[in-house]
Amino acid sequence: FFRLLSLPHAPGNNVLVRASALAVVGGWDEAMGVGARFKSSPETDLYDRLFAAGFTGRFEPSAHARHDQWRSSRELIELDWRYGYGNGARLAKLARTDRRRARRVAGEAAWGWGLRRLADAARYRHKTDAARVTARMTGTAVGFVRGLATRVTDGHYDERRAKTSS
Fold this sequence. Notes:
Elements: H1 2-5, H2 19-25, H3 42-52, H4 73-97, H5 99-123, H6 127-148, E1 152-153, E2 156-157
Antiparallel strand pairs: 1-2
């Protein structure tokens, strides 16, 4: 489970969190996720804050979900940019609160979620995969900068007190 949470994008489907644990960390950060300022990564951000508060978790690898991809190549590239953008915002928070974990997540994002996959895409001449990885890495950089420019209060991005406008 700990390894899973060092990944740039950990699954949030079928997640169960006790209400008392959510109360301790202030629940989900509403600035993160689909339709929000930082377009993804609400799950990994929540996991970061739960672990920082001393909670533990369990990952059940035998649980599976099937997902039929319905997006076009262009939509997948846009989705990967949003994943990167949210992950960059998550990294900006971690850089303020847990530098050790931030370094580990950044390393996974740069290597496992980035350069290694980009090399694979080049090796197998998968242009769409290369574009998706490039979009994700670019999104991560932009999200990180924008995340650093936004105040964090009690583990949540404070949209009312943003240092810069969006």
